[in-house]
Amino acid sequence: MAPIAQVSNLAVAFPSEGNGWRRVVDGVFLTVGEGEVVGLVGESGCGKTLTALALFRLIPEPGTIAAGTVTVGGEDVLALDDRRLSSLRGGLAGLVFQEPARALNPVRSIGFQVSEAARLHLGMPAGRAASLAADLLAEVGLEGPERLARAYPHQLSGGQRQRVLLACALAAGPRLLVADEPTSALDTVSQRHLVELLERLRARRHLAVLFISHDLALVGRLAERVTVLYAGETVEIATRRELFEDPRHPYTRALMQAQLRVEAEGPARLPTVPGAVPRAGAWGRGCRFAPRCPLAFERCHMARPALTELENGRQARCFLVGDAEEPDGRS
Amino acid sequence: MGVADGVPILAGRDVVRSYPARGGVPWGRDRDLVLALDGVSLELRSGEILGLVGRSGSGKSTLARLLLGLERPDRGEVTFDGRSLESLTEPERRRMRRDVQVVFQDPHAALDPLQSVGGVVAEPLAVHGLCPRGERRGRGKLLLGEVGLPGEDAFLDRSPRELSGGERQRVALARALASGPRALILDEPVSALDASVRGHVLNLLLGLQDRGRLAMLVIAHDMRLVARVCSRVAVMAGGRVVEEGPTWNVLESPAHEATAELLAAARWLSEPPTGWAARVLGEPSSVR
Prior knowledge:
- The complex is a heterodimer of chains A (about 325) and B (about 290).
- Chain A contains twelve helices and twelve strands.
- Chain A is an alpha/beta fold.
- Chain A has an eight-stranded mixed sheet, with helices on both faces.
- In chain A, β11 (about 310) and β12 (about 315) form a beta hairpin.
- The mean pLDDT of chain A is about 90.
- Chain B is α/β, with parallel strands linked by helices and about 290 residues long.
- Chain B has twelve helices and ten strands.
- Chain B has helices at about 60-65, 90-100, 105-110, 115-125, 135-145, 155, 165-180, 195-210, 225-230, 245-250, 255-270, 275-280, and strands at about 10-20, 35-45, 50-55, 75-80, 85, 100-105, 185, 215-220, 230-235, 240-245.
- In chain B, strands 6-7-8-3-9-10 form a six-stranded mixed sheet, sandwiched between helices.
- Mean pLDDT of chain B is about 85; it is low at about 275-288.
- The interface between A and B is large, with 62 and 57 residues.
């Protein structure tokens, strides 16, 4: 079956201080199958959000997609005309942003905003849209949906707003839901409830979900397949089980060792990764993780490994598991 | 300081604090005050890392502001070295501002972008008159070294804006340590940090405790963080401390349902269920 979304060798560039362009994303690969839950994990500045925005051709000006292909629902997103682009955004695919406080319009009622996509994309009349809004608010687990539909964003808690955004994204019955750090503003109990909700919605609606988070454990909780980003490129793709049982990229391994668990035997030091994530686009020659990698050898500093197919369709970008290198070591 | 070991550095006793209700939903309870703290007692003692854990809105940050003396309780009292904050003389207040420091969650917002890193770290030295002007830069370098940052001139001259989140949080910690405090309040110190650098900050806190009598109050919503760094934990829910005890004890046998809920969420979030992967792999919906 064709994937619902596919990103291949994506590069996103912004004008640099001089007169050139700087690629802040370069080498992202991502596939989301129909009805599949894929996790996109990586640290700040690694390109998670830009990848999500590229799926909707929403890269903020003056940024631009400098290379690669993006398809959603079998269509080339970069070639869509305005009408088809509009039916992609909020129609075919819904997007839930990171900050629920800023994503809602403060002067429109919750009900108006939740039903907007249905009115716009499905041409639903206002009366039916209003009852749909209440249904959606109930579906995302909010109590008193009819009254809530008449409320305004400032009257809601952070957790409620996040669920309202989810209802907005579902209004036009999308086949793909892209959720960008939907839990990072929530406490652990609300995080659990939101992940459980996504799992229910996904099963009931046969939704494909792209779940984006910096939290590897959380991604592992929901996703069937995980794509790991580091410094603007995909470094590993594997099923959740393969990834957790046998991570192949040293960065994935380091992330796993850095996870906190409840079952710590009293205060104990945590394994750390030396150094910090490089600034977007400020990558040297060679593997972008090499400066922090405990296993790096000479070649890692000289050439950039290519994302290599391993067994069972899993992929990794590391000379320890594959020999192929990118044609040009410099990005 | 001549204060007996038995006296907590900071303590709240039956502290009550309410705020005018804002936001919420219009059909909510017919009340115009929200009780943020409903009779809270808590003691922070020398040399301990105390975890204050609870859900959003449970009152953790309100309690921290009261302990810092940034707000006054409606009822009950907050003490510093056993003396009520209300009764402190001006020199005693100044001593408290030197001895009790705070690190906030968001190092972007907490550091003045117009100051250099060196300026940020040296400011408390100047404010509290702890070190002659000519020696401040040198002390700043030492402090940065203590938190694992380069004590080079080039680093001191950088703007906090140029630093990564982990570096910024360590600069904030260096500033908090500059006045030689006896108590540190850390409000969600690592929740804005990436996993690969979170360890640097947590290990630093453990190292600080090993070294001296510094007391730390770590505010968090995540039991995993508390389990890793805290010797004692207090659990808040609905404006009250509902459970308190040695961390291992609370983790092994939580007595209050709020504790159990936080623990269950932390476990659930970090443990993919076994067998789940095999099940979904068998579904026709999965690709390849």
